[in-house]
Design brief:
The complex is a heterodimer of chains A (214) and B (273).
Chain A: H1 2-6, H2 8-42, H3 45-59, H4 63-73, H5 83-109, H6 112-120, H7 125-155, H8 167-178, H9 182-211
Chain B: H1 2-23, H2 37-44, E1 46-51, E2 54-55, E3 59-61, E4 67-68, H3 70-82, E5 85-90, H4 93-101, E6 107-113, H5 116-119, E7 123-138, E8 154-158, H6 162-175, E9 179-183, H7 186-195, E10 200-204, H8 205-215, E11 219-235, H9 240-255, H10 258-267
Parallel strand pairs in B: 1-5, 1-6, 8-9, 8-10
Antiparallel strand pairs in B: 2-3, 3-4, 6-11, 7-10, 7-11
Helix pairs in contact in B: 3-9
The chains are: A mainly alpha (214), B alpha/beta (273).
Chain lengths: 214, 273
């Protein structure tokens, strides 16, 4: 256990990357997810079809495969991405697919009457979506979004295969140095746990604030 | 009130976790190994072998998708001489030694370089091959020809390999700052070298040839060999009967010419004496 404390700065650097990966991919995932959800609900048939195809492919293949395709596979087509960039793209695209389903469900759960009332006051469909439907949908979407966020935090460990030195990779590097397995894996297990708990706490706060209006 | 209770529970849980962790600090003792693993292997009729399977021509999957190469051939020959058959499992290099210690395999044969560091954890047979390690760069690269040129560059290496330790503990302090990227197998590091995402890697020539031949990677070896490594068969400690039996098998192989035949089969030359 002393080993873990001695190497804490090294591990914390990895934890920093883990958080950075989670936050960046969540941010872009939210944008992708919201756009795809709206495309599936309001788009014309070809757009709907593309959005459905995207969600189906991403949800139907392992994240690890997606990461490796983006990092190692694209090179064959002349696209050479840095490992961090590739990780951001893979994680965002992956989170986007899951979040789009969350948003779609949340948007659908807002009663139709709300939309009709908005139209009757003269709002355009876009205004009605932005001012009336989305704020209500957001509140419903928070708990399942939290699931995706926390899942993503843990799945960032997969990008260790494309040489991003996030938490798991830092631990593996230390293990290769000391040949001690249990302390490091338990140590990072605790660190992942603390980070997910922190994230859950923030989300809970956020949910309570959004609920205040009701 | 409820909140405070929750906080208490969390703190208690953390404390318990902490205790469990600190209990794990000590060295895991390996005193529980069964009396004679050689007997057990002979009784089972199989010897379980761990190998990378992604390091041609040493260890890779052939056209029939079977584990093949110099290392598996040596393992099969040893198994034959012990009167058993070899059963292969493939895994990332960095996971091989942990799996060996967790008794998932009986031996690991995957170009495991014999080092004093590793001897603290595992045991080795006599070496069965010596490899010269060279600097490998992209064919377009002209500014790296020796270790000193690594300064400020990004160097790729296999995670948990002897080469990684070498770069970190010997080259890094001597040459000055450079970035080390770690890979799970050799092919991916060479692919990144081909793609230009790393400036150089270190490896040996035998490993390079089939990858260049088959995938057309634009990579080359430069300069003089930086070190030569001796690889042995890795096994768990306190297992002298098995080690001695394997050493005898290796010595017999070398004496009756089987070893030379195998070496020629994979590297197209006779082993240096």
């Amino acid at each position: 256990m002393q080993l873990v404390f001695d190497n804490l700065p090294f591990l914390l650097k990895g934890a920093g990357y883990t958080l950075l990966l989670t936050i960046v991919s969540m941010f872009f995932g939210l944008i992708i997810g919201l756009s795809v959800a709206i495309a599936r609900l309001k788009g014309n048939p070809p757009i709907r079809w593309i959005a459905r195809f995207y969600v189906s492919v991403i949800r139907g293949t392992p994240l690890l495969v997606q990461i490796v395709i983006i990092y190692y596979g694209l090179v064959d087509y002349g696209i050479t991405l840095g490992s961090l960039t590739a990780a951001y793209i893979a994680l965002s695209v992956n989170a986007g697919a899951y979040l789009s389903e969350t948003f779609r469900g949340a948007i659908l759960s807002v009663p139709k009457g709300q939309l009709e009332a908005a139209y009757s006051t003269g709002m355009t469909p876009w205004q009605a979506m932005r001012r009336i439907v989305l704020p209500q949908a957001m509140r419903i979407a928070i708990p399942p979004m939290g699931n995706t966020f926390i899942g993503m935090l843990k799945e960032t460990s997969l990008v260790s295969v494309i040489t991003v030195s996030e938490l798991l990779r830092q631990a593996q590097l230390l293990i290769a140095q000391y040949y001690q397995y249990m302390p490091f894996y338990l140590g990072i297990g605790v660190m992942y746990w603390i980070m997910s708990t922190g994230l859950a706490f923030i989300l809970e706060r956020f949910e309570r604030r959004l609920a205040k209006a009701y | 009130m409820i909140k405070r209770k929750f906080a208490m529970v969390t703190i208690t849980a953390l404390a318990v976790f902490g205790l469990v962790l600190s209990a794990c600090g000590g060295n895991s003792d390996s005193g529980t190994t069964a009396a004679n693993e050689l007997e057990q292997i002979k009784k089972a009729g199989v010897i379980k072998v761990g190998t990378m399977g992604t390091y041609p021509p040493y260890t890779f999957l052939n056209d029939k998708k079977e584990v093949d190469g110099f290392d598996p051939d040596i393992a099969k020959e040893i198994a034959k001489r012990l009167g058993v058959t070899a059963e292969f499992t493939t895994q990332d290099f960095s996971g091989l030694i942990p799996s060996l210690q967790a008794e998932k395999f009986d031996i690991v044969i995957s170009q495991v370089t014999i080092t004093d560091e590793r001897k603290k954890q595992i045991d080795f047979t006599d070496s069965y091959i010596t490899n010269n390690v060279k600097i490998i760069v992209n064919t377009k690269n002209t500014d790296i020809t020796k270790l000193e040129d690594f300064k400020g560059k990004t160097i790729g290496v296999g995670l948990g390999t002897n080469d990684e330790t070498y770069l970190r503990t010997e080259v890094l302090p001597k040459v000055g700052d450079f970035k080390i990227k770690t890979y799970d197998d050799v092919i991916t590091s060479l692919k990144d070298l081909d793609a230009g995402r790393i400036d150089a890697t270190i490896n040996n020539l035998y490993a390079l040839k089939p990858i260049v031949d088959e995938n057309g990677f634009q990579i080359k070896a430069v300069g003089e060999p930086i070190k030569s490594d001796m690889a042995g068969v890795a096994l768990r400690q306190d297992n002298a009967e098995l080690r001695d039996a394997m050493n005898k098998a290796l010595a017999d192989m070398k004496a009756d010419g089987t070893y030379d035949t195998l070496f020629k089969k994979w590297f197209n030359e006779t082993p240096a004496k």
